[in-house]
Amino acid sequence: MKILPAASGVGVTTLYANVFLLSTAGKRLLVDTGTVQHAPAFWELLRAFDPDAVLVTHSHVDHAGNAFLAARAGYNVLAHPLEFDRLTGVSHELPYPAGQPRIGEMVSRLHPKVPASRLQAVDAGETVYGWEVVPLSGHTDGQIGLRRGGVLLAADALLSSADGAHLPRAAYNWNNEIALQTLKDIAQMDLHTILPSHGGALTLEQVQARAVRDDG
């Protein structure tokens, strides 16, 4: 499996969504797990990287689809408490396919879940192996990212495409107004590299341009 360097101390591979491998402060943190369709590749990655913990930015199945494998292998799964019900299967809210909540619920129910005993809560302002936990709500209520040294792992607060930064479709956001405010907040951060969970790296200038455009 090819792992591409994205920034100092950061590696990234794509299992539908980007999966980040952070090596800082003598610790290894794996961020997000890709879709369950990529379970064999994720299992190989998990064994090769052998992280000290696995962090899930939010509970959508393209990011948390293989978190159950990490839990079965004995790794703690870190997430914001607002994501716990969806990660454990207490709730099956899933916004896609857009406008078809019954199908979204069925998709969620078909995915293996994380035992509550393996979940560990993290919240904004905490530090995980040298990375600051940043609130990025809007796409989901409990979405988080990680920031260190001018680099932000932005989860689905932003998407990257050939024309720069943009928000996920409104139908996929828990609260689109909050998602837009989060984008504007990112545009005000002291950053040089933004790494979204879909697409390549973005510059702060690209995010600022999008924030201005959406504000108008």
Write the layout of secondary structure elements.
Elements (H helix, E strand, L loop, with lengths): L3 E4 L2 E6 L1 E8 L2 E5 L7 H11 L3 E3 L5 H4 L2 H6 L4 E3 L4 H5 L12 H10 L8 E3 L5 E2 L2 E5 L8 E5 L2 E5 L3 E3 L2 E3 L9 H12 L5 E4 L7 H12 L1
Parallel strand pairs: 4-5, 5-6, 6-7, 11-14
Antiparallel strand pairs: 1-2, 2-3, 3-4, 8-9, 9-10, 10-11, 12-13
Helix pairs in contact: 6-7
Question: In a few lines, what is going on in this structure?
Answer:
By secondary structure, this protein is an alpha/beta fold.
- The total count of strands amounts to 14
Based on the coordinates given, report the CATH architecture: 4-Layer Sandwich
CATH class: Alpha Beta
User: Could you name the CATH homologous superfamily?
Assistant: Ribonuclease Z/Hydroxyacylglutathione hydrolase-like
| Helix percent band | 25-40%
Give the helices and strands as they follow along the chain: EEEEHEHHEHHEEEEEEEHEH
Unreliable parts: none
Strand order of the largest sheet: 1-2-3-4-5-6-7
InterPro entries: Metallo-B-lactamas (IPR001279), NDM-1-like (IPR050855), RibonucZ/Hydroxyglut_hydro (IPR036866)
Protein name: Metallo-beta-lactamase domain-containing protein
Pfam family, one: Lactamase_B
Domain Metallo-beta-lactamase: 16-198
